[in-house]
Protein 1
Amino acid sequence: MPMYEVEHICPLTPSQKDDLAEAITKIHSELFIAPRLFVNVRITDISEHRTYVAGKRRKRNRIVAHIRPSSQRTRAHFRTLCSQISESWNSIITSLPQHPFNPTEVDPNKNPEYELSTIFIMGSIVGGQEASFEIPEAGGEEQWMRQNWVEFKRRADAGEEEWQEMIQDVEERGLLGDGGGEGKGTNGTKHEE
């Protein structure tokens, strides 16, 4: 349901991109109690793009997150989101070898092109469709999953891998409390995305 746009100027290996996408998916799905299937991440090399800050051409790594707005979220939730994403970036991008010919760690203080300079959280998704389903309002995920559970299961039973993974994710994490379309949920103290 959210869309994370990772724009990088430093070279990233395919495995770093995969690891970063996985980290963002995990962070978002756990912080906002969202099925992993609906966390979208796009990673784009913008090293040749013209980007500007304060009217001057500047190159920076940045992440722009488009999420659904909700009155249940506070600045503390977004600080946590930014902090966890930043920690993951540092762990994945600056702590791993960048290239077989350069197997040393990258110090972003000495190599600012590896620093994650900016994270913007935009409450800009007010509606839409994903995987042929209308997306729910933030905070309405549990009811939405219950209403669509039969169709989710049908698609999983038909052999659609992403739906099999989604069913497994929801059941393993207890997002519906009982693993199915009926019964008590487990929204607890976390906040939905």
Protein 2
Amino acid sequence: MGSWDGLAKKYKLRCIAPDRFGLGGSGAVPLEYRIQAWLDMVPALLAHLHVKHIAIITHSNGTIYTLNTLLHLRHLLHPTRPFVAFLAPWVHTSHSGSLTALSFVPDGLIHKWPSIAKFMNTDIAPMFMFSGQIFNGITKSMLSGAQLESPGQQDYDPELKKIFPDLERLIPKVFLEENISGGADEAFLSLKRGDKWTWGLFADTDEAVSMVVSQERDLALVVNSSQDELHQEKLRIEVFFAKSDIMIGKKGQEWFNQCWQSQDISDVISYTSETVPNSSHDTIGGPEHGVFARLLQEISLAFG
């Protein structure tokens, strides 16, 4: 995140990444209130920081929160150049066919994940060096998130790039030393487990997309009928899939695309998607792929 912040400053942008509830410095929020609490927190945070408009870059199960932000807080996007990017977006297992083994994991074990994770990191890993490597593979996807020889990689300070390998090694360790009690609720939310999960106004991504499209068309009618001289561009959505994504697989990626492409939305939404070579679900936002730098450049130009 520190490397992203430095790059954002280069483009005269501010990078804001709120902790999820029960993670990092944020207090716990019960599963059934997580979405509403997010919708209450975001405008309050932006008002506190004196930020009027934002572009959104979201990763993995941040997809659920971002779709809710689009539906409830659309006014926070840039008034004439609204922009949202999805990196390795989350797709429920019923559509992806991935992570099917999780359906056999008891709810009680998921509830205990935070304490197990801390135990593995602080007690077991020092005793067995290989255990840390195994555990890193499990926990990296909870940290939330084109071999483009794009403006991306060279935009990072050379001295900063030298410490990227160390950062990748230390991030999971630091993550587990902070509060991770909300990790179990994030898992229940993503997997739609238990009787208290809710994704807000919609039950799944395809339903949310239909609502977003309808909302954009209503907004276009309002803008076109107003006397405002500002030109309202289409909502711009860019999606970056990982080349290898164990969380949703190719089937999940195709389904996510289909949610947006099953109907003609070109009148109100500009939708593009691409696969980032040599990337995984967890590394897609890393500096080696240049995606984040490319997005910051696009946002900087859009915000003028």
Protein 3
Amino acid sequence: MGLNDASYGALLPFMQTHYHLSYLVVSLVFAFPFIGYSIASIFNHRLHSSIGQRGIALLGPCARGTAYIVLSFHPPYPAVVAVLAIAGFGIGIIDAAWNAWIGDLADANQLLGLMHGAYGAGATIAPLIGTTMVVKYGCGWWQYFYVPLVMCVVEAGWGLRAFSSEDGKGFRERNERSKREAAGQRAGLRGALREKVTWICAAFLFMYVGVEVSLGGWIVTFMSKVRDANAFDSGISATGFWLGLTLGRVTLGFITPKIGERLAVSVYLLLSLGLELLFWLVPNFIVSAVMVALLGFFLGPLFPATIVAATKLLPKHLHVSAIGFSAALGGGGAAIVPFVTGAIVAATGVDKLEPIVLALIVVLLGLWLLLPRFPKHEHES
């Protein structure tokens, strides 16, 4: 998934040149996956109940692989953005399934940190691979998608092996006890949407993933146009951001539960505000590259911490639906926020990227503080 999400920013300038597009039109590569995410959020619980985690482990990579095959033929631009909706669906169902499953395990913060660190590792090498292929070896931007296509095959094989016994019947049976304990509350998306926590977590992930993808997606263009970096150095700055995000998820994932998710995330966001101000106000490429890497480091653990917050604050039978909905809205943020950013950039200039990100981090802090007091996870009791 990291190979998917982080590739668009690095490939964006080359796609823009290939198709002769404006900033606004090329930003549609961020917007269309939201359609797939939205469909995934509606059918997540139903898919789990019918095909189980085993079926999800196959369906997710197959959907993304289909999109990558089409992209590798560099079709007309309308077809490019259309198949990205299919990729969005594949990411949406996997996002919900594995976040909900790991979020309910012992040491969830650490395990989610490792899982999201793996996402960050893919996101770290994606700009490096994409930029190197196009700039150093003269490949077409579309040839990059052979890489995530191969990984989809590997993912499907490992997923089927790992969840070989996890069918729909098993999923339904495991959720029966939680349903009875919920005192008659209705399971599924409708029940999850009755919970205020679901909406706060969803709004937080919408804004958070929007910040993450806006920075990772537009940083190459920003460094090239505003900091006057060359194409390769601009691509490497994106790698620095995703590397920082990866390291933050892996390392801070072990610190967060020790000081508590509520306090830890508040501190991470305050530090991010300071770093973003330095990034914006110091007009130097080296400083900007360091600041964006540190931003990635402190923003990295926010997604896993939000998943843990949802599992602590919601009953178990709502976890898949609530986390699926929240992750889908996160996918919406990955689509809509960078698209809106692209529209603003098209109208006012790329230099407006940083005040936009600064404002979004302030909103993130406000949303986080709306969450109620966290109870202990059942494994901590």
